[in-house]
Amino acid sequence: MSREIYDLIIIGGGIAGLSAALYTARQGLKTVVIAMDIGGQLRYASAIENYPGIESITGLDLALRIQKQAVAFGSEIIIDEVTLLNKKDGLFTVGTRRGNVLESLSVIAACGKAPKKLRVEGEENFIGRGLSYCVVCDGPLYKGKKVVLNSFGENGIEALHLLAPIVKELIYVVPTETDVSIGEAMKYGNVSIYSGYRIAELHGDGRLREIVVVNKYGDREAIDSGALFVELGFETQIDFLKPYVDINEKGEVIIDRYGATRTEGLFAAGDLVNIPYKQAAVSAASGVIAALSAINYINRRKGLAKSVV
To answer: How confident is the model at residue 2 (pLDDT cuts 50, 70, 90)?
Structure first.
């Protein structure tokens, strides 16, 4: 049986990665986006009023619009975490936390920052098996069920508004007793609040079954639930890229004006790279530049004379 090889794998579901996917899929390239969430940091922008052509929009809505366009042109979306990148004999191999292994002619790294993890024992075992870092992506899967949400601030408010109306019961674990999101949580009759608590342990039998929370006094409680959403912000996670790119003193991936890294066929875009001004419009443009460069590279690999300019 022949193996499936993508034209392009895009790592990251923020505005740079999604904009790249829109362009490459529209050009007919077999494109897949692998990301832990959709929107990245953009999800936490409550109002964007300086994106050309749009008077005002939330960051999440903007990301979802671009995702919809990319998917309409044929791009695939996989919610997963990339942990491995290799290149051999002109092909890239990308491995993920859930065990997916994909191959492609080219890769665009647009994984500016990834969702923060809990850093508790056994966490990796439950990713995709009841543990999610993206309410937007996975929330609808738990309609009518009991779920736990660990978040705070504006992140928590947004997640509450998405989850509470669709689940049967929501346990909200928030790290402080005075967080601004607590007032919003109290508006829902199906939300129980554990303020001043953190997630301490996760237990299950291949899938998540129990979540142990603890407060500053050491009081512990076990919560029976098969779903935990963690929305704690973002951090940079690019160890898998380091063998193939140069990184500057700021921790940014160094690219040329075409979005190319030092590894042929590997491009990078968005907040990940050494371009100034970390703005949505700039990141989107960076993704488009990387996409056009990847299109031309892939066409050359296929022996096609056509190019985009």
So the answer is: low
With beta carbons less than 8 A apart as the criterion, state whether 231 and 151 touch: yes
Q: Which of the pair, 59 or 19, is modelled with greater confidence?
A: 19
pLDDT of residue 1: 40
- % of the chain at pLDDT higher than 90: 75
For residue 306, being part of any structural domain is answered with no
Say yes or no: 187 and 54 in one domain.
no
Evaluate whether residue 218 is within a structural domain: yes
Sign of CA dihedral 133, 30, 69, 305: positive
Residue 31: C-alpha distances to residues 104, 120, 160, 183, 197 (Å): 9, 34, 33, 42, 41
CB-facing half-sphere around the CA of 149: CA atoms within 13 A: 33
Final residue of a domain: which of 231, 260, 289? 231
Q: Is the pLDDT of residue 71 over 80?
A: yes
